[in-house]
Write a structure and sequence with these properties.
6 helices, 11-stranded mixed beta sheet, DHBP synthase, globular, 11 strands, alpha/beta
């Protein structure tokens, strides 16, 4: 039975988030709110937890997982970015954007795309998630919580608990979050490529002309 952590959205109780972090450090998978929708998260360096996360989400190793980072200084540790890429990312960070970037050596090879050596990274604009990341002291491996066979992400904590109570270790409830996934932009090639249009606008990045 998954634990249910009901926290204040603007002033989350540190003791509850510490309990959630303890589960992550044991190799468990949690459902957490973000500024786009709920996400499944686990410890970055735990292979078994990453495999479990993929099984719950119903995706294989070709599906880009995302590193949730506290800020751009963390992002730079896990991806290779040039000055132009950094300026583009900074213009809309934190926010509902995921950027596909060339993974650095800090990212275990099993977590990056098997053919391209790329990884998704983002800095969320969500108080509860930011506090959780601060207590965890490193990025979390994540994927949008979309049930296998469905197309819309989940955003209601009680519904997530009902459906996943025997598959995950905990759900953090800070109230409903947006129902839109992140906008995904691939920056690993010569030119930016729009992979998915979500909650983040292209105008904020100066990429209004970008098309899928």
């Amino acid at each position: 039975m998954a634990q249910f952590f009901a926290v204040h959205p603007d002033n989350p109780q540190a003791r509850l988030l510490k309990q959630a972090v303890a589960l992550l450090e044991k190799g468990e998978v949690l459902a957490v709110p973000t500024d786009s929708s709920y996400a499944l998260v686990c410890h970055l360096d735990d292979k078994a937890a990453a495999d479990k996360l993929r099984r719950i989400r119903g995706v294989d190793d070709k599906h880009h997982l995302t590193l949730l980072c506290r800020d751009l200084s963390e992002l730079a540790n896990y991806a290779r970015v040039d000055n132009q890429q950094f300026r583009l990312i900074k213009s809309a960070t934190p926010g509902p954007y995921t950027f596909i970037l060339e993974a650095s050596k800090e990212v275990p090879r099993r977590l990056s795309h098997p053919a391209r050596r790329t990884i998704g990274l983002r800095v969320p604009d969500h108080k509860v998630l930011q506090d959780l990341l601060a207590l965890h002291h490193e990025p979390l491996l994540a994927t949008t919580l979309i049930a296998p066979g469905e197309s819309e992400p989940l955003n209601d904590a009680q519904e997530i608990l009902r459906r996943y109570q025997n598959q995950i270790a905990g759900v953090i409830d800070a109230g409903a979050c947006a129902l839109e996934p992140t906008t995904i932009i691939d920056l690993s090639g010569a030119e930016p490529v729009l992979i998915r249009q979500g909650g983040g606008t292209l105008a904020a990045l100066g990429l209004e002309a970008l098309r899928q």
